[in-house]
């Protein structure tokens, strides 16, 4: 029968009594769990010798362990002295490594029992005082059990992340809060607990016992949760209550003997409760037991109804407050985004001229990218709706795009559309929402936008949300509560996190941490330049889906929108649009149309009648135009460079406003270079005023701010102000100009920067492209350094694309002599015309050559070494002149030079260092000259999937892989360098394959056109794959079984009647 636990006259004293009982039951519920996990800890730390005492393993003196007076020996070591034991020292070190604070309580433990009693290891994680004589987990107290779970990091694997987040000793750690409950109850001054505190105690203890990792399935923890529920709701029998109070009194006595400190009030109250309950048992137990069932049920029902009403009222109040908080946060975020994120600069020429993104946004050209097993990115279908991004079950979404392709515009448009879904200010139609559908965005109750370039010293997304959003939309005294509300919301609703500019994030980690963000409620969209996603630390498994943004689908639509923003209402927009398109065609600038940033730059320049100097598709010309215009904003003085003297760079020749400001431009360019190549990545893009003043004088800084080259942002304090270049490509343009003016820094600075990380050349790829337009000699030198770091590039031939872009920039600026270095080649129809020019310069340093997906005709040849053609000269003896009129790299040039009839010759006569050769095609575009492959002495990997006749492989002494298609014909006995061969795939005819000569074979795949000599494969080959194609094992012809036996190292005579079991 249930009994009333109100045995004291004072209600808050009764509450304290319940709390004390709850602690004891919680400890009992955790006991079996801790015993089990200590066995696992014992296995982890290893087995000791069993002979060493703890005193033998601790040097004397050791702080917090040894107790030594001036005239007395150490009371800890006594007669036992330190000695070295390799086995026990290792166990001791392992115990220490598992201690969260590296401070085990050595005085508690008996090292000679480590191998047989896990508890002695567990005692190392107890508090230092009061536990020496405690013999088991069962004999320990609540504080001891919780201390083990807190101090031993093994328990991180046994409880949920939420249980230890934030990690101890942070007072907000849930397990720390549980330990504090024990302290508050034991050390109370008045033995009183309020109703609110008691409910808080029950909630925290029950939550711990129901931890979802292990404890929710533990029988003892389950029983303890049931008891706590009974105690909380007064469902304990009077007899059980008496037993429990006696047990509590015994624990109190034991704890006092062990040195545990209890308040005198707690001790007196427990004794008073024991006397009171014993009296009740003697005097009224029979009377209580004789109560009618109906009356008892009535009381319990009324009590339960009251409790339910109280709980319901409390829940409703809490829910109301939560709903109000959610609505308030949503409203604040939308207002903040509409004031900041969705307002984008119309052009890099004037960042103060910003406009709502929906007014100029045009359809983006986005494709889904398939990430193959080898890391290669293959373009797939184009996407047109938000549902293509967010409704495929993808959680980690990445959008990559080259500089100026519109990544940030896409993010801003996404934020705008989300705001308009939840708080419409215009009618949402499909015409207005060019990319996306309202139904898709409604699934996101919240959207948290993060600018990664502004997160200089932060590594966690939740921290960024706090500083970039919470701190800006709430008053300081509301920060903590608002942040807690945001974290609570993340556990209850579906939301989207947009991280803009991964390549601009200065964090040391490869990606911001998403710890603390529930996976099942969150989708993360991250924008980045492609080079950042090439970081080998980003695993394919971390990218659920990758999209590639190529720019604008409809440049004409975009130009019309921009013109409407630039011109007054009386202007004839259609007429001006036609005139602008004629201008682009006449200046060969159509290639800029797909880039929102470059397109608006050209368009704004044309509208202002300052486009006379844009004569071709040169990035340096475009950015010089930008520089010219921003210089005019800060200083309208006009001065020209003397035509009889060399200007700093060719593209400055016709400028009016650059020369008067050259002193400032040089200083700003030096600062741009210094920050980008700084060892402190966190300040490469966003930096403090103090750091900037180390590079710029006050007048140069003011010029940079007035012109708009630099932007400054205010912080909470004047000392928190940060600065950055108006766009990363502007900073890269100026950094390249500084290298041009100071070419010696390539050896003095850049070489060291490149050596610090073998992938760091990707960081400066855009700088290199600009340098090709400024100074081809410096670019040639830098390309040689970068090429040395990309000898075996495995990611999409990123460096080849960089060199090709640099080559086009060089040609556009008519710079000579071109001598860019490249060792790894992948020819395709899209790049063949330009890439062959680079190939001619680098034949002797070529390390790999891949040809596939060709619509042009490729002729693989080997010219005589006495040929006088410049193509056959060693690199260094010849360089390419700049080609006249080289337009943008497209497949639709009017001169037809990129048509399908283009003929390209690949001369291999000087490829003495070629290690990999792949020739693959679908049609008949590749022809291989007889003996073209002779002389490739260092060749290791050969793949031929084209028509090749009379191939002789006998020259390849180092060959490791052969993969030959059926269209290849081999000379007899041409395979004779068996020693290094590891992988063989022959789909062609070959007579006389000698298996006995293989020494390192790992994989072999042959067709029935290959005849094997009667010599079995030696067993020392580590072969992992055997594949026979087109063999008939069920026919009367036993050639298939014969070959199978030879490949498995068996005697074919003895296997005449054997039928192998092949995988289904």
UniProtKB/TrEMBL annotation:
Gene3D superfamilies: P-loop containing nucleotide triphosphate hydrolases. Pfam families: DUF4559. Residues 395-504 form the NACHT domain. InterPro entries: DUF4559, NACHT_NTPase, P-loop_NTPase. PANTHER family: SLR5058 PROTEIN. This is NACHT domain-containing protein. It comes from Dreissena polymorpha (Zebra mussel). The lineage of its organism: Eukaryota, Metazoa, Spiralia, Lophotrochozoa, Mollusca.
